[in-house]
Specification:
By secondary structure, this protein is α/β, with parallel strands linked by helices. 29% of the residues lie in helices and 28% in strands. The chain has helices at residues 16-26, 67-81, 110-121, 150-160, 175-185, 227-238, 257-263, 290-301; strands at residues 7-11, 33-37, 43-47, 55-59, 86-91, 125-129, 144-147, 165-169, 188-198, 201-208, 215-223, 243-251, 268-272, 284-287. Strands 10-9-8-11-12-13-14 form a 7-stranded mixed sheet, with helices on both faces. Strands 1-4-5-6-7 form a 5-stranded parallel sheet, with helices on both faces. Strand 8, helix 5 (175-185) and strand 9 (188-198) form a beta-alpha-beta unit. Helix 1 (16-26) crosses helix 8 and helix 2 (67-81) runs parallel beside helix 3 (110-121). The longest helix has 15 residues, at 67-81. The protein is globular, with a radius of gyration of 20 Å.
Length: 312
Amino acid sequence: MKIKAPIKFFAGRASTYLAEKIVKSFGTELGRTSVLEFSDGEFQPYYEESVRGCIVFIVQSTFPPSDNLMELLLMVDAAKRASAYKVVAVMPYMGLARQDRKDKPRCAIGAKLVADLLSAAGVDRVMTMDLHADQIQGFFNVPVDHLYASTLFVPYIKSLGLEDLVIAAPDMGGTKRANAYSRFLQTEMVICYKLRKKANVVEEIKVIGDVKDKNVVIVDDMIDTAGTICLAANLMKGQGAKSIRVVVTHPVLSGPAYDRIQKSAIEEVMVTDSIPLKNHIDKIKVLSIADLFADVIHKVYKYKSISSNFVV
């Protein structure tokens, strides 16, 4: 009879806060690691306990700086060289995912490069959440468990008990996600059309659909500078919307994002803890993804179906 390989959890420094929640929900403890730092900024992570023959889960979101991605790659490589049986990268937020195609001449496809780097490091499986584009899964040559924060957000939206609810897509690229929410919640949908001259700068935005006397919920995979969402919210408020809320998976929240949200017509922004918040303001509420990832990890470890963990 084949003996099941033992399971161990480890975390990169950027996601230790989340890994601690995941292992608590799973019912185990986080493995011991250390990082040797050199004076020039170079670093070398290493394991303080044996991983030989183990299925190793490494929790690390790869938001900027790029050191977070490099640390994950080094941890995967170290586990493989220490004779781990399998190595799984638990990457709730995948950095560079916005670079999923050549949208201009002579540019890189960063998402594909990240997938290749993880494969070269020796990863056997990847767990992530709300990729910027679903087709990024095809960049990997190993199994990808692509989870959706809608598992958490849909029950939350229902709990608000909002009448005259409308789901909004902040741009044309988000229509598929918004349509899935609207179908599941049996509501109407509106779309924001934006004209962008350069990255993170929106020149013009228009709302396609009726928001007058509606409670609007804008859904998206990430919020960066918050420029688009705040412009859309203010425009909808000007067109007679009762209230505007935002549910977004990854709180990148760079530059003037916090200040924009605070001054906008948005009543509430619901995010996950895939990325730690730099600041805490009353308008931003956090739902933890720890229980969801712990449940999926348990099912994957036991070779069980994870279909029940998908809502949208």
